[in-house]
TrEMBL record:
Keywords: DNA-binding, Repressor, Transcription, Transcription regulation. SUPFAM superfamilies: Putative DNA-binding domain. The keyword Transcription regulation applies. Residues 1-64 form the HTH merR-type domain. It holds the Pfam family MerR_1. This is MerR family transcriptional regulator.
Amino acid sequence: MAQYVGVSTKTIRVYHAKGLLPEPPRDASGYRRYTAQDLVEVIKIRTLAESGMPLARIARLTAGSPGDLRSAAGAAEAELSARIDRLVETRGRLRELAAGNNPFLPGEVEQQLRRLHDLGFSDRWIALERDLWILAFATDPETAHRYFADQAEAQADPVLGRLYLDCDRAHDLSPDDPELDDLAARIVDASLARYPADELREQLAGAALPQLVQSSVNASSPAWERLDALIRSGLRRAVS
């Protein structure tokens, strides 16, 4: 049987074990005796298996109508196409990794993070931003894109960029350092000049994503935590 059909004897035994092919009775010498119809059934099973059809479906299909087979083949093709799409996407991500790119962030975000080195930001700040952008883009891509575009524009501005740099360098200050009060006042003034009062009120109301990002920032530095409190307090007074 195996030689006629071009499969191994182990494969024939699997077909028996799975209930795809009834096991024939043995003759007086203990050999199984297969018929021509058995050969036809094995050819059908092998052909369907080689086309990617799961063995669990094959028994039902070989006993069904041609329409059943066409329907199952269409479903199997759709599943295979979806699997191919996922594999192509995975290959693309692996190529990005091999090229040294960050697969977790849009390309423009990674480019901006690399530019921060030239602008004078610390490795600590850049690493923190990278993690926070990964979090933001994974949880709320639309909002993250909007915040990213706004921040990239601000960091490129000489005056606003200076405020970001001062925030970076405030990381190791004591929470009681008066520099924090001065920095908070400058940030409040810049925010009032840059954003409408309604937008600032909305930010202070605490949308989920900004709250999550800010809590992560505050947890990394007591000075940053106090700076955030001073900024919020100053903005609330200004827009209330």
